[in-house]
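idk why but the lab printer keeps eating my pages so im just putting this in chat instead. protein + calcium ion:
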Amino acid sequence: MDHTILKPMTTSSNQGAKLKQAFDRYELSELIEPYLIYDDKKNSALVLISVHHTRQISAHHGMEACQEILDILIKQLKGFVKENCLLVRTGKHEFALLLQNLNNPGHCQLALNRLERDLNNKTLSVKSYTTKTRMTISGALYPRHAITAESLIQSSEIAQHQAESTGVSHLMFTQVMSNRIEKQLKVETELDLAIQRKSLEVWYQPKIDLRTQKLYGVEALCRWKSNHDGFVSPEIFIPIAENSLMIKELTEWVTNTSLRNLMEWHKLGLGINMAINMSGIVVDNEEFVEFIEHSCGVWGIKPKYVTIEVTETAMMQSFETNLDKLNHLKDRGFTISMDDFGTGYSSLEYFKSLPVNEVKIDKSFVINMMDNEDDRKMVSMIAGLSRGFGLKIVAEGVENEGSLQALKELGVHRAQGYHIAKPMPEDEFLTWADFYLTNLDL
Ligand code: C2E
Ligand code: CA
Ligand code: CA
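predcted complex ->
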């Protein structure tokens, strides 16, 4: 029998078949094992289907409405099942489909494409409302990717994870994914340990007032020295922390460490501002406002000395829900800074209602502004726009004196960059500040 290409079958004896269930991976493994043909020349494929929109339906319209939608989907999925193929329900919103006897491994990709085309992003109507289907479909092949039922499940899950974390709706497993996940897991474990042992560091990079030359403040930047790889860039470990929810703990630690240091500096007479980066996930958290206010309370820091940096992209993504939180903090006297400005997609409409008092022009425009006409125009445009809205303008990535002067002429208020100083550990920063302020006074 040829099962090479998956076709929807409208009249199938399988339509009425009872759906097999496996609520853990061992059960699924036992169910699919007999269907795998232990012969290198025959291909089987395991497809995992994770339905997302039904979770929201369940939350907003209740279990019954959710079940109605799931019943429609199950009926459609059964229509795809041919003889000797197996459809298993692996969770409330998850299904597995084992396809047997594929003549060509490429046919698994065709099956994914077909499932995507026929089932995903489709409008379904039940009773009083209409919904769009949203699912992630992933697949892996026996024997190309895995030679046991267990490892076949694992490979399909890796593809599923990769699809979900990159926002792709259907994806075939590749060995590269497996290597990447293995590396990521290693880094994740090590980072988790570093957070628990508090072996991370906070470095500080100065921000200068361009009009007075005074030291306005610093940005707190997290540093992690891994035992195996030395210093790992935050561009790598922050997204890992964000994906694994370690970001909450990391941010709490960075916030407390930097505010404790700030309290000590204030006691020394260094009354500067502290800018702390907040990931979108952290701002999304219900306790975000309380966390910020509580941390300032613990270290006796007034809000006017704290800047909350949120990237333009994060701000736009959760615009509606986080507007109130940021507005509240702004009203309390915190500075809300829109980080990496120019790299996102804010419309002017949004811009005027954003709860910010500072815009940070992304370094990608500033670094080359003396050599690149387009970058200079971008900087000038962002500065003009921000000034029009009465916002403070900060430029990061100032790498030379030419840019510094040009930024001053454009009316930019504050500058940060390697030309002024690189991020430094606390003791080095204090030495630097002492030297800088002494020379400023002369
Ligand atoms: P960011 O918030 O845009 O921080 C500025 C980055 O630009 C820093 O990179 C800084 O070292 C770098 N930089 C500053 N001046 C110059 C310059 O003149 N030239 C060049 N080429 N680069 C300059 P870093 O420290 O590697 O941090 C990268 C990103 O990681 C940060 O970008 C921020 O998004 C994130 N990050 C760092 N620490 C934290 C943290 O504690 N929490 C969160 N959520 N994110 C953090
Ligand atoms: Ca920043
Ligand atoms: Ca930035």
